[in-house]
């Protein structure tokens, strides 16, 4: 039998389906496919397996307590890095206090710039611990400590014409010292005469809160000669950070007490050079 004859009905069926156009029905297509041989039919699409059933999460066999997290804190600043120490509690440092027979008044912090309040700071120097370094230009006094640190105090220094520089030694020191102004100062300030009385070593003023030397005084000498200059307290704390003295180094009374307790007799005092500074020998003659 001619195979071409057998295929004619199938071809005719597809031709008939093509002529049907948009009106081709589903039954017509099925009938056409029915005439095709098994090898000519398209393979069936693969079977789609259903998704596995969802597994409900069961209880955790091991009960875990919630983990509490704490906020991170910045690491402490290290002195070895040259950072400044934490800010002191100045209301306590400069508050009113009893000192022997006298009362040291509280300092009105609003009268003094905060930079001149006592603070432990990084300080690079070749001077050994125990040395006192005065920086008149910036109105600071440093008590050198170990490990590249120092206690820094604000000070008042000599006014123009009374600025000095050089080395000296703390010969001795006194609490609530009497004040014996040199005759040169009395000549410049005749008003001082009315405040002076006869004391053991001459005319002067008794120690106490109204005394210009304040709560403490450290006497500066060069060799066996008194320079007539002092590091001392003051009853005028608002002058700290200024240049108003006759050459002495003024400190807040609470700071003068603190330095007095640290600096020992024989300690070296270095006063750095500044604009208009003179030698101790020349200035002490004025």
The SSE string, one letter per element, is: HHHEEEEEEEEHEEEEEEHEEH
In percent, how helical is the residue content? 10-25%
What is the count of DSSP helices, taking H or I runs of 4+ residues?
A: 6
- Report the end-to-end length measured between terminal Cα atoms: 149 Å
Radius of gyration: 48 Å
Proportion of residues in extended strands: 15-25%
Q: What composes the largest sheet?
A: 10 strands, mixed
Please tell me about this protein's structure.
This protein has 286 residues and is an alpha/beta fold. 18% of the residues lie in helices and 25% in strands. The protein has 6 helices and 16 strands. The strands form 4 sheets. Strands 3, 4, 5, 6, 8, 11, 12, 14, 15 and 16 form a 10-stranded mixed β-sheet that branches. A two-stranded antiparallel sheet has the order 1-2. It is elongated. 25% of the residues are buried. The model is unreliable at 2-40 and 67-82 (pLDDT under 50).
Sequence-ordered SSE layout with sheet pairings:
Blueprint: H1 3-19, H2 26-35, H3 90-93, E1 97-99, E2 102-104, E3 119-122, E4 132-135, E5 140-144, E6 149-154, E7 157-158, E8 164-175, H4 183-188, E9 197-199, E10 202-204, E11 216-222, E12 225-232, E13 243-245, E14 249-250, H5 253-262, E15 268-271, E16 278-279, H6 280-283
Parallel strand pairs: 4-15, 7-13, 8-16, 12-14
Antiparallel strand pairs: 1-2, 3-6, 4-5, 5-6, 8-11, 8-15, 9-10, 11-12
Helix pairs in contact: 1-2
